[in-house]
Amino acid sequence: ALIQAFLKTDSTTKIESMLPVVKAFAATQFDSNIKISLGGGATSGVALNEVMIREKVLNIVQIMGAVFLVSALVFRSLLAGTLILVPLLAAVMVNFGIMGILGIPLQVATALVSTMAVGIGADYGIYMSYRLREELAYGMDEYTSVKKAFLSAGKATLFVSSAVAGGFGVLMLSVGYMIHVWMGFLIALAMIVSSIAALTIFPALIFTLRPAFIYKERKATMRLAPQVVVVLLAGLMGFSAYDMAKAETPSAEHVMKQNFIAGKVADSTAKSRFILFNAAGQQRIRETNGATKLIAGTTDNMRLVTFESPADVKGTKTLLVEHSQGDDDIWIYLPALKKVRRLVASNKKDAFVGTDFSYGDVIGHKVEDWNHKTVREEKLAGKDCYVVESLPKTPAIGENSGYSKRLNWIDKESSIAIKAENFDSAGKLLKKIQASDIRKVDDKNNKWQPMTMEAENVQTGTRTVLEFSNFKANVGVNDGLFTARSLEKK
Question: Model pTM?
Answer without folding.
Answer: 0.54
